[in-house]
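Thread: "does anyone have the structure for this chain?"

Original post by V.I.:
We have the sequence but no experimental structure in hand. Need at least a predicted one for the grant figures.
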Amino acid sequence: MRRFLAIALSAVMAGTVCVFAACGGGGNSGNSSKDSGGSTVTEPEKLVYVSMDINPEIELIVDKDNNVVSVRGGNEDGLVLLYEESGIEGAKIDEAVKKITDLAVKYGYLDENNKVIETIVSSGDSDFAAEILSKVNTSVTATAKNSGLTVATDGEGA
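Reply from O.Q.:
Generated one for you, tokens below.
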């Protein structure tokens, strides 16, 4: 039953991420404008997609104000890590990454035998992607250090 719930949750969250990606995050968070017909046109370059792979894999969508607008587990371990967790969606990116890193340490995904986090950050705005990548890497290393781990971050912006 728990596996079924995790699979169902994954499908729902995947759909949510696809909607956010296609619609630029939804709502009117300052990332949209009106076209000549009065329809809302989103500016996807104002969003950043962040993939953190510790195994678990966690995927985040971040808005121009550095707020996490969507979070999901990218694989089964990611779903387990995020199961019943709150406070990531809606948080600033550095706080969200801190919480994810703390959870990874707590559940044994990040330890002395597994201490590399691969991060991919992509956006239509390369400067914004680089800024978010820096925040993610800084938050990961500081949080891991507080847990007594020296973690390597292997990240790239696109």
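V.I.: this helps a lot. The first helix runs from residue 2 to 23.
O.Q.: and The chain has a mean pLDDT of 77.
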